[in-house]
Amino acid sequence: MKASFSHSESKKAKEYFERLILQYPHRKALPNALGECELYVTMFSLWIYSIQEQYMIRQSHTDLAFEVTNGTNQGNDKEPIEAYEDILSDANEVMLRLDELLLSPPYSDNHRLWNLLGMLALWKVHLLSRVRPPREGFATGDIEESALSPNPSLVSRQKEVMQKARKAFIQVSRLGGLVKPGLKEDLNL
To answer: Is there a cis peptide before residue 181, judged by omega within 30 degrees of 0?
Structure first.
């Protein structure tokens, strides 16, 4: 599997959008005109897409290495848990930037940015469900035992991020955006 664009190309695209955002500020007099809110949605979406694509490529290489070596990972590829941790780190970076942006108007009034935050939070919960660090008292070699027992701090992080997703989707509804019906039931909105 080959990437649509490399990490450096993704970074250049993000920088381009940041410059473009400066050229198209929000205009209260022209609320439907192209502005920074729409450009931010596009920039964050591209950023998330590039992270997911890099993960999918990494995952396909890991799966291939696993098949070639008949179940033993002898290649140079990272273990799947380490790959999830890398993706989780990148997702945290995006989420922090989006959180900062949503602190002030006009961004805090944009339901599309809130929807993106909610979806990003759900993705992060999914990634956290894949990461199972060893519990205290177990050696690193006891991965099988630690994988069966969820880490309590990890579970609390998942709940915290799920609550963040719920709050984001409540904000989407409050601002007049649409929340998918399945999400409404799943999140008790």
So the answer is: no
